[in-house]
Automatic annotation (TrEMBL):
It comes from the Eukaryota. This is Uncharacterized protein.
């Protein structure tokens, strides 16, 4: 804790130090992991085990839309259901990034309007 800032509300401290709220940090980590899974950068998970790709031409947005797959393990089921809506809400520019670093920086730029709002 920084001296003198303990009485400020959480949102004010986020603004002061230019930080993301903890709720966004968890979502950001989930989206980065999903990016790694979908681009075969993560060798621990197979995309088909967690989600299925929504290959319908009528969907708006980026071409890598996901659906929660039928998963038998509760931890994976929770992860896939938690991340699918957020992943599908990403812009095409973010989703189709060519490397993990550009994905992370574009993701943060995409989230700037809600950056300092605690959920």
């Amino acid at each position: 804790m920084v001296k003198g800032l303990g009485t400020l509300p959480y949102e004010s401290r986020l603004l002061t130090f230019d930080l993301f709220p903890l709720s966004y940090k968890q979502l950001r980590g989930d989206l980065i992991l999903t990016y790694g899974i979908m681009n075969n950068l993560d060798r621990c998970f197979v995309p088909d085990d967690l989600f299925t790709q929504a290959n319908t031409p009528t969907l708006r947005g980026h071409p890598l839309k996901l659906r929660s797959g039928k998963v038998k393990i509760d931890g994976r089921k929770f992860f896939s259901s938690r991340v699918v809506a957020a992943w599908n809400a990403l812009s095409e520019e973010v989703d189709l990034s060519t490397c993990a670093n550009s994905f992370m920086s574009r993701l943060d730029m995409h989230q700037i309007p809600s950056r300092h709002t605690a959920v």
